[in-house]
Design brief:
heterodimer, A: Rossmann fold, B: Rossmann fold, 4 domains, 7-stranded mixed sheet, 6-stranded mixed sheet, disordered N terminus, binds thiamine diphosphate, binds magnesium ion
Chain lengths: ~325, ~625
């Protein structure tokens, strides 16, 4: 009745959030930049999950991609280059009630923030991390990043880079206590959506590597990746990340991979000729530092006074 | 002050006729790992518990296990005890217990002893298997006597071996027994102290240590022909005794902060050790981060999302935290930063005292980064300033720095037991809905103050950023907006200064010389100024607790003195050296700032010898400055 679709009538929460409730302003990334797709899919997920914007925090570093929180109508922390992880971990430490997302770029995460990245993986705090890897420094205008492949011509490597890149999946899988490692690409929004969703649903540090295009500084690379059907491989498994049959059909290559098999995941990650889409690895039981952080919340002032008083007793003359 | 001690003229019936003295400085020096510090701390605690004024300072070699029997390896403790309140480590030591004859040289290099200093030396080296060591021993004894020390050889090892198989474990308690006799301390308090320090150990260990303690006491009673007594101050006031780092830790607990994020660094780390013991039982946690950058980032994240957090570090850590310190100011995130200063630059003198970080914290970040800096001058202030810092950080939405140093960190001093107040503790996190029409940076035009929305507050959503931003926290490149927001961020500190009183002058309001100090030198400066005043010298002093913004009224105070100089423990060019001209001379850190602030020709005395300044040294500086012989 009243022309409403029937599924809108039942069981409305006290406030229903629409995609608009999560978005703010107009994203100022270049047209064709992969960041837009991540933003749209993330907003869609927040709506799907009906996350309270007041209890959602997006933390980022510095870079084109790290502008992300400014386009979310949630709480946001656009901090320092390479330092999103320590801030996000600090946010989550005593706030189990907040949903924390981290947005970082390939320079932000794998170069200046590499130390913090390794440790954040190890802390395994419950947060959803998206590494927006365009294999280039966008904001500072085309310098190589540690993920740029050999031969990348940039403003600091006019004759092409010569050192093999860091492989973010391989690196993350190499760190002890890694608990969720997945990969997706900006030109496959449906797959990306399912990946972000699976990451969000995982209780722990969900590391999502988003391969994405920079139409300004990595135009041909992006074209090659998005169109070469022989590169992309869809990882199938009942415990993995599943897309609809229509989307699955678009992959020329498929393979079965069990996301509990760490050695198999590492082997796949090292095969750099191919891009494997989906879930490499998930461990639901990895120890979580945020559980430790939330282990002694809510002490009253009286309880604190008592401990202080007892400590003074110990030092009393 | 004690002049030379006349050992020989002591009456024979020691026990009843101990020589009454006003104060004494005792040092215990040894190789690392021989327990000298535990012995000295116990001795200090016993004395403090009896009601004496006490100040201790640790003598720490830079390595954990430096070569045995070497002057660089001198490890131990100095304890100054007196009938009156003791505010600093004093001048030369009056009595030294040395567990070998080489380690005193490390202290002699520091001019720690005077003619007449009593030296009680372990005598086992006289009969050592190695001829080289035997010779070293006898040479040193001759040398010590030539230097005018009163040397007594003590069979410490021999006596301990009567009780335990390995004298290295427990000799310190034997020495404690000896000292308890020498200074007429209470045997009961001594025993209680041993029970307390070994409370986590087995009865067998406690008993053997108590036996050693009695053995030391009895041996001294039978064999020494001198004894002292330092009468106690009668007071009903309840006192507590602790180190500056312990006071910082307890201050963190008392402030109600719940997150301390740190990376280990000498001399700051031990604050986190005590905190780790008591924090989790009181609703707080320590996070040991992967480095100092992550430590402050984590603290900022925790602050942003809830209660103000604290990060504790020392100079090299401050250097690493620089970028985040700027962000916290720019984004107006409350934060407490504790800097327990050590010798710099670079790795510098990790275990030694210096007040070398003032300019780094004051000006270390690029751009305009106004801030509040508190400098604790006593161990008691280490406690109270952390509580104050947390409140100021929230009220002014800013990082607040608390400066301490090695001297305070490792020193021990009794102070009145603080009466706990409920309003010290941070209130629960505000999660009430944010008022819709209030912006995330609703800067008050007059004061620059604004209230911060905390995640979870419905309607307060915004993205903090280190980029220039407007009241809505939106990135702004508009010229006027950056000018305005910078000014408003600065205005907070002008507002804060209006709440402060001018510093209190120690001495007359007018005179020939005003000494300006800050931090741990308070006791030594005031003692020296007191001595000078007694000699009729027209000198006064002030001691700054607020380093940024300064307390008001400095110009008015300075006007009434013919000369003004700072005394600090950091580097300055010696103006008597002709290599340095008036246009090239580099001043000590506070002097630079005061010169700029007041336009007064403020002079300075400072050094980087890594030692606490002694009252005698400062007295010499005062006289030299005024041309008095
Ligand atoms: C300490 C510091 N160093 C350097 C910079 C300059 N800088 C800003 S973004 C950036 C690289 C960004 O690359 P990436 O992380 O890949 O993000 P993208 O712009 O490609 O999304 C650099 C070097 C900075 N802001 N801070
Ligand atoms: Mg990039």
């Amino acid at each position: 009745m009243y022309g409403l679709k029937s599924d809108l009538v039942c069981d409305l929460p006290s406030k229903h959030f629409s995609v608009e409730d999560y978005s703010k302003g107009v994203a100022r990334w270049c047209p064709g930049c992969g960041d837009h797709a991540v933003l749209n899919n993330t907003q869609k997920l927040l709506k799907e999950k009906q996350l309270d914007p007041a209890k959602t925090v997006f933390v980022s570093g510095i870079g084109c991609s790290s502008r992300f929180p400014h386009y979310m109508d949630t709480y946001g922390f656009h901090g320092l280059h390479g330092r999103a992880f320590p801030v996000a971990c600090g946010v989550k430490f005593r706030r189990p009630d907040l949903d924390v997302f981290v947005i970082t770029g390939d320079g932000d995460c794998c170069s200046i923030g590499a130390g913090a990245w390794i440790h954040a993986i190890r802390y395994n705090m419950n947060m959803t991390v998206m590494l927006l890897n365009n294999e280039i420094y966008g904001l500072t205008k085309k310098q190589i990043s540690p993920t740029s492949r050999i031969g990348t011509v940039s403003n600091t490597t006019p004759e092409g880079s010569i050192i093999p890149p860091i492989n973010p999946i391989q690196t993350t899988l190499g760190v002890s206590n890694a608990s969720f490692v997945a990969q997706t690409a900006d030109w496959n929004p449906a797959h990306m959506y399912e990946t972000i969703k699976a990451g969000f649903e995982h209780k722990g540090f969900s590391f999502i590597h988003v391969i994405q295009r920079c139409p300004i500084f990595q135009l041909s690379l992006g074209k090659e990746l998005a169109t070469n059907k022989d590169v992309m491989h869809y990882m199938e498994h009942e415990d993995g990340i599943t897309v609809s049959e229509d989307i699955a059909k678009t992959f020329k290559h498929k393979l079965s991979h069990d996301p509990t098999d760490l050695s198999a995941a590492r082997k796949l990650a090292m095969d750099t000729d191919k891009v494997f889409m989906g879930l490499f690895y998930r461990d639901e039981n990895a120890p979580r530092y945020d559980e430790y952080g939330a282990s002694n919340l809510g002490y009253t002032i009286e309880q604190k006074e008592a401990v202080l008083d007892a400590e003074f007793d110990k030092h009393a003359i | 002050m004690v002049d030379s001690v006349e050992v020989k003229e002591m009456p024979p019936e020691q026990n009843s006729k101990a020589v009454v003295i006003g104060e004494h400085i005792v040092e215990i020096v040894s190789d690392s790992g021989e327990g000298a510090q535990k012995c000295g701390q116990s001795f200090a605690a016993i004395s403090a518990k009896m009601g004496n004024g006490v100040w201790t300072v640790e003598i720490i070699p830079a390595e954990i296990q430096p070569p045995a029997r070497s002057r660089a390896g001198a490890s131990g403790i100095r304890i100054r005890i007196g009938s009156k309140k003791i505010t600093n480590t004093g001048n030369e030591a009056d009595l030294v217990v040395a567990l070998n004859e080489q380690v005193p040289y490390g202290r002699i290099d520091q001019k720690a002893y005077h003619e007449g200093t009593i030296m009680l030396i372990e005598n086992k080296w006289r009969t050592d298997d190695s001829e080289y060591i035997r010779n070293q021993y006898s040479d040193a004894l001759v040398d010590f006597k030539n230097r005018g020390y009163k040397v007594l050889e003590i069979p410490m090892e021999e006596e301990c071996l009567k009780i335990v198989k390995n004298a290295r474990k427990g000799k310190n308690m034997w020495v404690l027994g000896m000292l308890v006799f020498i200074y007429s301390r209470s045997i009961e308090k001594g025993e209680a102290q041993i029970r307390n320090i070994f409370r986590k150990k087995s009865d067998a260990i406690i008993n053997s240590n108590i036996q050693l303690f009695h053995s030391g006491y009895d041996w001294a009673q039978e064999n020494l022909d001198f004894q002292f007594d330092i009468p106690v101050i009668e007071s009903d006031e309840e006192l507590v005794v602790m180190s500056g780092n312990e006071a910082l830790a307890m201050g963190v607990l008392a402030s109600g902060m719940e997150v301390c994020s740190m990376y280990p660094i000498t001399p700051a780390t031990s604050a986190s050790h005590l905190l780790a013991e008591i924090f989790s039982k009181s609703g707080g946690l320590i996070h040991q981060a992967e480095d100092e950058i992550a430590a402050i980032g984590f603290a900022i994240g925790a602050s942003y999302a809830g209660k103000t957090a604290v990060t504790i570090t020392s100079g090299p850590g401050i250097a690493l935290k620089t970028e985040f310190l700027g962000l916290a100011t720019m984004a107006e995130i409350p934060l407490v930063v504790i800097d327990v200063q050590r010798g710099g630059p670079s790795t510098g003198l990790p275990t030694k005292v210096e007040q070398g970080d003032l300019l780094a914290v004051l000006y270390g970040q690029p751009g305009a980064v106004p801030k509040i800096i508190l400098a604790a001058a006593t161990i008691e202030e280490c406690f109270h300033f952390v509580i104050l810092a947390r409140k100021l950080a929230e009220a002014f939405r800013t990082p607040v720095y608390v400066l301490s140093d090695t001297n305070l960190a490792t020193g021990q001093q009794p102070f009145p037991r603080p009466k706990i107040k409920k309003d010290w503790f941070a209130p629960p996190i505000d999660q009430s809905p944010w008022k819709e029409d209030v912006k995330p940076y609703q800067w008050d035009e007059k004061t620059g103050l604004s209230k911060r929305p905390i995640p979870g507050q419905a309607g307060g959503q915004h993205t903090v950023t280190g980029l220039a931003h407007n009241r809505n926290s939106q990135v702004s490149y508009i010229p006027e907006e950056n000018q305005e927001s910078s000014e408003l961020r600065s205005r907070k500190f002008a507002s804060f200064q209006k709440t402060l009183n001018p510093p209190i002058i120690n001495g007359k309001e007018k005179g020939d010389l005003l000494i300006v100090g800050w931090g741990s030198t308070l006791g030594a400066i005031e003692e020296a100024v007191g001595l000078a005043q007694k000699e009729g010298i027209q000198v006064s002093s002030i001691h700054l607790r607020f380093m940024s913004p300064f307390q008001p009224g400095l110009d008015d105070i300075f006007k009434n003195f013919k000369q003004v100089m700072t005394i600090e423990i950091n580097y300055s060019d010696n103006k008597d050296n002709p290599q340095f001209t008036s246009s090239s001379r580099r001043y000590s850190q506070l002097a630079w700032v005061l010169r700029a602030r007041t336009l007064v020709d403020v002079d300075c005395y400072s050094n980087v010898e890594g030692q606490p300044l002694s009252p005698n040294r400062i007295l010499g500086v005062i006289k030299n400055k005024l041309g008095i012989k």
